[in-house]
Amino acid sequence: MKKRDLVELWKLMDQYKGVKNIKFAYFLARNRKQLQPEIESLEEAIVPSETYKAYDNERVNLAQFYSDKLHLVVLSVNLIMRRGGNVIYEPQ
Length: 92
Prior knowledge:
Number of strands: 2
Radius of gyration: 27 Å
Order of helices and strands: HHHEE
Number of helices: 3
Helix content: over 70%
Strand order of the largest sheet: 1-2
Largest sheet: 2 strands, antiparallel
Distance between the termini: 62 Å
Number of domains: 2
Protein backbone atom coordinates (compact mmCIF):
# COMPACT_ATOMS: atom_id res chain seq x y z
CA MET A 1 0.00 0.00 0.00
CA LYS A 2 1.37 3.40 -0.98
CA LYS A 3 1.47 6.25 1.49
CA ARG A 4 -1.07 8.31 -0.42
CA ASP A 5 -3.44 5.33 -0.36
CA LEU A 6 -2.92 5.13 3.39
CA VAL A 7 -3.84 8.79 3.82
CA GLU A 8 -6.93 8.36 1.62
CA LEU A 9 -7.96 5.33 3.70
CA TRP A 10 -7.49 7.37 6.90
CA LYS A 11 -9.73 10.14 5.54
CA LEU A 12 -12.30 7.58 4.46
CA MET A 13 -12.34 6.07 7.95
CA ASP A 14 -13.00 9.54 9.37
CA GLN A 15 -16.18 9.75 7.32
CA TYR A 16 -17.56 6.57 8.89
CA LYS A 17 -16.80 7.42 12.53
CA GLY A 18 -20.45 7.72 13.56
CA VAL A 19 -21.66 4.42 12.09
CA LYS A 20 -24.17 2.53 14.23
CA ASN A 21 -23.18 -1.03 13.31
CA ILE A 22 -21.12 -2.35 16.24
CA LYS A 23 -18.99 -4.78 14.24
CA PHE A 24 -18.15 -2.19 11.62
CA ALA A 25 -17.37 0.42 14.29
CA TYR A 26 -15.04 -2.08 16.01
CA PHE A 27 -13.38 -2.84 12.67
CA LEU A 28 -12.78 0.88 12.08
CA ALA A 29 -11.49 1.50 15.60
CA ARG A 30 -9.07 -1.42 15.46
CA ASN A 31 -7.70 -0.41 12.05
CA ARG A 32 -7.47 3.28 13.03
CA LYS A 33 -5.44 2.28 16.06
CA GLN A 34 -3.03 0.33 13.85
CA LEU A 35 -2.72 3.12 11.27
CA GLN A 36 -2.40 6.04 13.69
CA PRO A 37 1.40 5.86 14.27
CA GLU A 38 2.06 5.78 10.53
CA ILE A 39 -0.27 8.72 9.88
CA GLU A 40 1.37 10.75 12.67
CA SER A 41 4.82 10.12 11.21
CA LEU A 42 3.58 11.19 7.75
CA GLU A 43 2.12 14.39 9.21
CA GLU A 44 5.44 15.16 10.90
CA ALA A 45 7.31 14.54 7.65
CA ILE A 46 5.07 16.99 5.75
CA VAL A 47 6.05 19.96 7.93
CA PRO A 48 8.95 21.81 6.24
CA SER A 49 12.10 22.52 8.21
CA GLU A 50 13.12 26.01 9.31
CA THR A 51 16.03 26.06 6.84
CA TYR A 52 13.67 25.26 3.97
CA LYS A 53 11.27 27.99 5.11
CA ALA A 54 14.15 30.50 5.13
CA TYR A 55 15.29 29.31 1.68
CA ASP A 56 11.78 29.56 0.28
CA ASN A 57 11.34 33.05 1.72
CA GLU A 58 14.59 34.19 0.07
CA ARG A 59 13.54 32.54 -3.20
CA VAL A 60 10.22 34.38 -3.19
CA ASN A 61 11.91 37.71 -2.41
CA LEU A 62 14.41 37.19 -5.22
CA ALA A 63 11.67 36.29 -7.70
CA GLN A 64 9.67 39.34 -6.66
CA PHE A 65 12.73 41.61 -7.02
CA TYR A 66 13.43 40.41 -10.56
CA SER A 67 9.76 40.47 -11.54
CA ASP A 68 9.65 44.15 -10.50
CA LYS A 69 12.67 44.83 -12.75
CA LEU A 70 10.98 42.93 -15.59
CA HIS A 71 7.83 44.97 -15.03
CA LEU A 72 9.84 48.17 -15.54
CA VAL A 73 11.22 46.79 -18.82
CA VAL A 74 7.74 45.86 -19.99
CA LEU A 75 6.49 49.34 -19.16
CA SER A 76 9.15 50.86 -21.41
CA VAL A 77 7.68 48.98 -24.37
CA ASN A 78 4.68 50.87 -25.69
CA LEU A 79 3.23 48.39 -28.16
CA ILE A 80 3.75 44.73 -28.98
CA MET A 81 1.96 43.48 -32.07
CA ARG A 82 2.11 40.29 -34.10
CA ARG A 83 1.90 40.74 -37.85
CA GLY A 84 2.68 37.85 -40.15
CA GLY A 85 4.51 35.95 -37.41
CA ASN A 86 6.88 38.88 -36.73
CA VAL A 87 6.90 40.61 -33.39
CA ILE A 88 7.20 44.39 -33.60
CA TYR A 89 8.41 46.38 -30.60
CA GLU A 90 7.75 50.10 -30.63
CA PRO A 91 9.45 51.86 -27.69
CA GLN A 92 8.04 55.09 -26.25
